[in-house]
Every structure is written in C-alpha cells, then in structure tokens.
Specification:
Elements: H1 13-16, E1 30-31, E2 34-37, H2 41-52, E3 57-60, E4 76-77, H3 85-92, H4 94-118, E5 125-133, H5 136-152, E6 156-159, E7 170-179, H6 182-195, E8 199-201, E9 206-210, E10 216-219, E11 224-226, E12 229-232, H7 245-248, E13 249-261, E14 269-272, E15 278-285, E16 288-299, H8 307-320, E17 323-337, E18 343-346, E19 354-358, H9 364-379, H10 387-390, H11 397-420, E20 435-440, E21 443-449, E22 455-458, E23 470-472, E24 477-479, E25 486-487, E26 493-495
Parallel strand pairs: 1-11, 2-3, 2-12, 3-8, 5-14, 12-19
Antiparallel strand pairs: 4-7, 5-7, 6-7, 9-10, 10-11, 13-16, 13-17, 14-15, 15-16, 18-19, 20-21, 21-22, 23-24, 24-25, 25-26
GO cellular component, one term: membrane
Organism: Bacillus cereus
Keywords: 2Fe-2S, Disulfide bond, Iron, Iron-sulfur, Metal-binding
Length: about 500
C-alpha cells in the first residue's frame, strides 16, 4: 500500500456516476399542505407517494439534491438486516418481528415494482443475501437466527460454503433480495414528483418549526413554509420538539472501497456477522464489475486515525480477491436507536402534525422506503399495522435502559476527556494536507492546512452540547465523539444534531 493506493479525497461511486438535476433555493415565503425536509430516499419517496394522492407537497434539502446520506450507502435492498430477527423475537415477540420483516419486504417489492413500472435504468438486480460466520461463537448466533427465520417463515437456506473465496463455518441465505444504483432510481421518482406538481428547493436549510394548527418551517435564510404537516426526513431530525433524540440514538461511521479485482465476483450480497464486519456486493461501472467492500464501523469521532479503516478494508480485499485498482472510497454516517428499530411517525404526542423518520441502523434503502409508506398513511389518516412498532415515543425497559445508560456514560467520558486533553502542536507544525488539534493563543483549536498551504482554523467546541470535536483524517472533517455532529474544515455543519457552525479562529 502506498499513498497512491486510494483516491486522495473520498469519492462515492453513486454520486460520481450520476448527472444531477438542479433546483432553486427557496427565496420567498410559500404555502403547501405538506413540507418534507430532507431529500434522501425517505423524503423523495414520501413526497412522491403523497403527490400521487393529489397532495400539495414542498420538498427541501439543506444541500444539493441527492448528494447526502443516500449517496453514500452500499445500496442493498434487503430485509436481511444483519442479526436481528432472533433479537426482535426475544425482546418484542414473534408478531412484532414478523411486522418488521413484512414492512421491509413490502419496501423491497415496492422498489422492484417501481423500477419495472417506469423502466428505470438503475442497475437493479435480484440477488440472494448472505450472512456468514467464520467463528464458533458466530456459528451459535447464526444458528439462532436461522431458527428465527423458520419461526417467521422467511424463505432461506442454511449452507456451509460460499461461492466467494472465504472459508466459512456456515451461512444464512435470504432468497430473492436485490441491489441497485439508488441515485438513478431516485432521480426518476423526483422527476415524477415534479411532473405531478411537486415543488423542490435545494440549498435550503430548515432550522426550526413554529408550532400551531398551521405550522411554519423556518429556514436559515429567514423564509417560512406554512403547511398543515411537517415531515422531517433529514437524517438526524432538524427539529427535536423536546424528544431528546440525541440521547436516544448514537452515530456510527463506516467505510467503503470500490475495487477492480484480480478475480471474478460470482454475484450475491454478503455480510459477516463476526467482527470486524465485512460487507460485499458488486457494482456495474461502464460494463465492468467493481466489488464494493464495506465495514470498519465505529462511533463517530472515535475512529482516531480514520485512514486505517480504509487500509484494513484494502488488506481484506487484497487477501480475498486481489486488487488491481481502488477507483472509489467513501464513508457513511448511520444512526442507531436504543432498541435498533427506527423512529417513524409522530415526533411525539404533543405535536400530532409533525412527523419524523430516523435511526435506520445502516439499512435505509428498505427501511427508508417503508418509512415513506408509513408517513404517507399517517398523513392520510390510514391505519397502518406498523405504526406502534416504529412509534418515536416508544420506550422499552429492555433493551432501551441498558443501551441508554451505556451510550450516555460514553458521552460523559468523551466530554471530560476532550476538556482535559492538552494540544501540543501549533498550526505552523502542520504539513500540507494535514489536520490536527492545536493550540492557538493558549487555547485548544483545530487546524487544517490545505494543498495551497492555507490554514483553516476553528474552535473545536461542538456547538451542540459542548464536547470537543476530533480530526477525521480519512474524510477531512471535524467529528464530535459525543452525539455525532460533523463539520467541514471551515466549521460548517455537515451532520446534526448541531445546527450552528464551529467558530472560526484567527491565528495571530
């Protein structure tokens, strides 16, 4: 491995291979029936479904449309969400586990049928999905998951070998799942939404909601969207409504490489249940197969030298397939709830016309699509069997309390450590392309020296609740280890819950 092994900066294949539509930013006050905030798979699908019902919808996004979280996925369209069904049965019972499987299977079928209906050229392919293990402990866990599949009548196979060159103890196959290019799919849904009269605004950041019978979404530029319903699909909810989502979810980073391999890839989607996790699928790029390898999850802001995660994936790829080239690398942020089920529905009982969808635990293609259907049903006042399962106001004694305590003790630990950490370097110590915690005028700061030698210096105190952000050298960002906020080299907010930029610091 050399410095030329990877692209210098992260580059998502999905984003690089898509020609994006352009939309205006909101420059005036507007009225609509439903304001959807966030134009990823949940927001676009929700807007599309409501528009099909004749509802007036306005869709906004803080960045460029289709450039957010959905553009950094592995894009598996499956109801096989790692080891989950045995745990769901244990904690919530057979019926709720069945509902979880059913909602995600319906989402898969909706995507499949939508691709067929509109003849969407998005590299959609039906693939079997595999969970595999190489350890004795993993074998016990996978066996229990297989038993859960049988209880739920999930079509599956339990096998002892794979067609990829990984020796396994066993593997659990969920049949007839899928993969696709998510942005090419969503481009068509977005086109249909606009054709039906939907309005789209990009680079329009929602910062608050003024509650009432006709709530108003307030943008950073000071404009207002007056509506009957607000739907937050902004990854981390842009509006909290005293729901304290930052205490009920935690953020994880994970990494992906798209490689040109020395050996052929036989097809299928794979995920190891052992640590370190490894996710596999293929991409078709200009008629050529690339293998997409993901893994190396860690809590945001706690990855230390994040380039090591890319290097670990490369070592796995080289040992397993042989690597000719790594044309793409990127990372993603995912939100995990206390009980591993997403929060979808009324943000809380006090705000019946404000909805939220978040916490997909890395499985946003199906869960985000399922969320869109539930949100549509809620707004149209159609009963849904999934309403209670995903209700954001739920709280279960097990496993919520245990996870709540452990995650918030971790927050306290990093809050304290950040305050007592001593910065030994100065901005002048940095090499070109390097970022680090430094001291400026005796105070902790963060500095990055770009390729022109210009210094970008920020206050490292997170604007959410005051933890100290850490440098992410793999993505050239400042990441908060407490609640997962992320900031650019100039301090601009890239991921919430923070909604204010880091302060800039003068080096005098």
């Amino acid at each position: 491995m050399t410095s030329d092994t990877f692209p210098q900066l992260p580059l998502s294949y999905w984003i690089e291979s898509t020609q994006f539509p352009t939309f205006p930013h909101l420059s005036e006050n507007v009225k609509t029936k439903v304001a959807v905030i966030g134009a990823g798979i949940t927001g676009i699908t929700t807007a599309y479904l409501l528009a099909k019902e004749g509802i007036d919808v306005t869709l906004i996004d803080s960045g460029l449309i289709l450039n957010g979280t959905t553009g950094h996925t592995t894009a598996k369209v499956t109801a096989q969400h790692d080891l989950i069904y045995d745990e769901l049965i244990d904690h919530f019972g057979l019926e709720k586990a069945r509902l979880y499987y059913e909602s995600n299977s319906h989402a898969l079928q909706f995507i499949r049928e939508t691709v067929q209906t509109y003849k969407i050229d998005c590299n959609f392919s039906n693939e079997d999905s595999y969970l595999y293990t190489t350890t004795d402990n993993g074998l016990r866990n996978l066996s229990k998951e297989y038993e859960a599949y049988q209880k739920l009548n999930i079509p599956c196979d339990y096998i002892q070998s794979l067609s990829i060159p990984i020796p396994v103890q066993s593997a659990l196959v969920m049949k007839n799942q899928a993969q696709f290019h998510p942005l090419l799919y969503l481009k068509i849904l977005l086109e249909r939404f606009v054709e039906m009269g939907g309005k789209v605004y990009e680079q329009t950041t929602a910062i608050d909601v003024e509650k009432g019978d006709s709530p108003q979404v307030i943008t950073k530029a000071g404009h207002r969207i007056t509506c009957e319903y607000v739907v937050s699909c902004s990854h981390f909810p842009f509006y909290d409504a005293s729901s304290f989502f930052f205490t009920r979810m935690y953020a994880e980073r994970s990494y992906a490489l798209a490689i040109k391999a020395k050996t052929d890839y036989p097809g299928g989607m794979y995920l190891s249940i052992d640590d370190p996790k490894r996710s596999l699928r293929y991409i078709t790029s200009n008629g050529e197969k690339l293998i997409l390898i993901g893994g190396e999850s860690h809590k945001t802001g706690q990855g230390i030298n994040t380039m090591l995660h890319y290097e670990a994936l490369y070592s796995f790829a080289e040992a397993t397939f042989g690597v000719d080239e790594v044309p793409y690398r990127w990372s993603a942020q995912d939100l995990i709830t206390l009980d591993k089920l997403p929060y979808i529905g009324h943000i809380n009982e006090r705000n019946p016309n404000i909805f939220v969808a978040t916490g997909y635990r890395k499985w946003g293609m199906t869960t985000g699509t399922a969320a869109a259907h539930l949100l549509k049903d809620s707004i149209l006042k159609v009963d849904s069997p999934y309403k209670e399962l995903f209700a954001p106001s739920r709280f279960h004694a097990t496993p919520d309390i245990k996870t709540f305590l452990s995650q918030n003790m971790d927050v306290a630990k990093h809050l304290i450590e950040g305050k007592i950490e001593t910065a030994l370097r100065t901005p002048e110590d940095l090499e070109v392309g390097e970022g680090s915690v430094v001291h400026v005028n005796g105070k902790r700061a963060g500095a990055y020296k770009d390729k022109e030698g210009k210094l970008h210096i920020v206050d490292t105190t997170c604007t959410h609740l005051g933890c100290e952000v850490e440098w992410n050298n793999g993505d050239c960002t400042w990441d908060c280890p407490c609640h997962g906020s992320r900031f650019s080299i100039d301090g601009d907010v890239m991921e919430g819950p923070a909604d204010q930029p880091l302060k800039r610091v003068d080096n005098e």
